Amino acid sequence: MFKPITIKDIAQALELSPSTVSRALSDSYEINEETKKRVIEYAEKHNYRRNPMASSLRQGRSYSIGVVVCEVANSFFSQAIDGIESVAYGKGYHVIISQSHDAYEREVVNMQHLANRAVDGLLISMSAETKDFSHIVNLHEQGLPIVFFDRIIDAFETHTVTSNNREGAMKATQSLIDRGFRKIAHLANAPHLSITAERLEGYEDALRQNGLALDESFIRCCHHGGRIQQEVEEAVRYFLSLPERPDAVFVASDRLSMGCLSAYNKLAPKSEHPAVAGFSNSDVLDLLQPNFTCVRQPAFEMGRMAMEMLIQLIESRYPVYDFENVVLQTELMMPHRISG
């Protein structure tokens, strides 16, 4: 069984007191340079690593950050996590990632588990099913620093980082209008999510600016955020059953875009597929639908900024009352080739 070397082991080998070794490893001015050099060389040679549990007990910090996202396999969230880690490890923090899979119960359990592991703070993107925020509010009231990114709530004041969802949705819908489509449906995420309302507004803006009437029957919400493919298929079946079928669909999220394209491939011949534009940071959707137009979010930058903001909250010596709500711009990626 692997047993890491301890400060006591180093002290015994060098015939020093454990407190002297500890101070030498902390570069204390109380220890002379020659002793420091001996201790550090021995520690490096024997792969000594600081015990994070012991350090956290001494300093009241664990140097670990909890990250709660719907799923790591989602291209947007995997890129955001890369951004989070790019900051965290440079600042001496470890990242513990948990997936809610867009389920409320899973989110509650995950957050409680992370809090019990004494993380120094939480980075959260809300699950599609979460309507009751009391589990998050309770942790906030207990003093745990929390920053939201992408899917945010306003249950209390803190830093947030999001995309310009309204403008991104408007650009995606406008791209379909520019290609000649007029009967544009909208496949939306769970109604209560912050991103859902903003992207719906962008869709409506584009229709209004082009003199197109808003048809409420052309809007379908997926309350589970695409977690249950059957729900997405039911929405696609509904679009296919309409007397006047949509000739294009604006899809509101990465996971829903994949689910929507898969559902059309399963339920209708290629000749009956509408044009699709939607939010996605994936590179594989082009394979499913060559003329897919996507709105890309700056996921890496979002994760990086959220992590920097959280570390600022954790390391602040005084209570923070000024919070930033950062909104990043999206990018419209036109298809490489248009078919049909």
TrEMBL record:
<keyword id="KW-0804">Transcription</keyword>
<dbReference type="Pfam" id="PF00532">
    <property type="entry name" value="Peripla_BP_1"/>
</dbReference>
<protein>
    <submittedName>
        <fullName>Transcriptional regulator, LacI family</fullName>
    </submittedName>
</protein>
<dbReference type="Pfam" id="PF00356">
    <property type="entry name" value="LacI"/>
</dbReference>
<dbReference type="InterPro" id="IPR010982">
    <property type="entry name" value="Lambda_DNA-bd_dom_sf"/>
</dbReference>
<keyword id="KW-0805">Transcription regulation</keyword>
<keyword id="KW-0238">DNA-binding</keyword>
<dbReference type="InterPro" id="IPR000843">
    <property type="entry name" value="HTH_LacI"/>
</dbReference>
<dbReference type="GO" id="GO:0000976">
    <property type="term" value="F:transcription cis-regulatory region binding"/>
</dbReference>
<dbReference type="InterPro" id="IPR000394">
    <property type="entry name" value="RNA_pol_sigma_54"/>
</dbReference>
<dbReference type="GO" id="GO:0001216">
    <property type="term" value="F:DNA-binding transcription activator activity"/>
</dbReference>
<dbReference type="GO" id="GO:0016987">
    <property type="term" value="F:sigma factor activity"/>
</dbReference>
<dbReference type="InterPro" id="IPR028082">
    <property type="entry name" value="Peripla_BP_I"/>
</dbReference>
<dbReference type="InterPro" id="IPR001761">
    <property type="entry name" value="Peripla_BP/Lac1_sug-bd_dom"/>
</dbReference>
<feature type="domain" description="HTH lacI-type">
    <location>
        <begin position="5"/>
        <end position="59"/>
    </location>
</feature>
